[in-house]
Structures are given as C-alpha cells and as structure tokens.
Amino acid sequence: MKKLTIRIEDYMYDRLNLTATENKTSINKIIASILKQFMDQPKEINFLKELDERLDIISKQIETISKRQYLHFNISSQHFANHGYLSNADIKDDKCLNEILGKNKNYHE
User: Fold this and answer.
1) Alpha carbon 44 to chain centroid distance?
2) Which of the pair, 38 or 84, is modelled with greater confidence?
3) Rounded distance, CA 56 to CA 53, Å?
4) Is 43 helix (H, G, I), strand (E, B) or coil?
5) Which residues does 98 contact at the CB level (< 8 Å), separation at least 6?
6) 3-state class (DSSP) for residue 47
7) pLDDT tens-digit profile of 35-56?
8) What is the mean pLDDT of residues 14-38?
9) Are 78 and 97 in contact (CB under 8 A)?
10) Nearest to residue 31, comparing CAs of 73, 65, 3, 52?
11) In terms of Cα–Cα distance, which of 23, 36, 16, 108 is closest to 70?
C-alpha cells in the first residue's frame, strides 16, 4: 500500500471529519472509498458533460459556416448576374449586392 499526502481546504476537511465521525471510520478510508468509486466509474459516464460541451461548440461552428456559405452563394450569384455590366462595376453602387449584404448582416459577423 502506498502513502499519499493531499492538501484540502478547511471546510472540506471539516466535512470529511464529520462524515468519518458519523460512520465511525477514518478520513483515510473515506478518501480511499471516494477515489475508488471515481476510478471504477465507466469512462463514458465521466466524460458525458465534456462531450456535450464539445458537441455544442461544433454545432455552433457548423451553423456559422453554413450561414457564411449561404451568404457567399448569394454574393456569387449576384456577381455572376452582374458579370459584364459596366453599370454595376462599382460595388458601392450595386443595389442588389447592398441588399444582400444588408439583409444578412448577422451571417457574416
């Protein structure tokens, strides 16, 4: 058996001491029991919260990419429609492009 020294906050020590007194056992046995229970848990259960958070991040990134792709498609379509027309050569004067960009501000922010 190996010996291990840990540092804990006073309130945690008080709670462990109270639990040990109630159960008529030692703090070492309680800590060993807690560690054993944690180590014996299946890994899938321990990491469900972390997996959920990562999936949320990935989902938000996919949604952002999708919105940007939709905006890019609209701009590309407008560019194709304007190709060859000198009246629409200035981007600031292109009413259709300005309408697309104005309507989709939240997509590219």
Assistant:
1) 18
2) 38
3) 5
4) helix
5) 92
6) coil
7) 898 888 776 655 778 888 899 9
8) 90
9) yes
10) 3
11) 108
The span from the first CA to the last CA of the chain, in angstroms, equals 58
pTM exceeds 0.70: no
The answer on pLDDT for 61 being more than 90 is yes
Tokens of 66: 């999708």
Q: How many CA atoms lie within 13 A of 41 on its CB side?
A: 11
Instruction: pLDDT band for 24, please (50, 70, 90 cuts).
Output: very high
Residue that is written with structure tokens 């560019």 in the block: 79
The candidate with the shortest Cα–Cα distance to 82, out of 95, 99, 69, is: 95
Q: Quick one: which of 81, 79, 102, 80 has its CA closest to 91? A: 79
> Which residue type, as a one-letter code, is found at position 103?
K
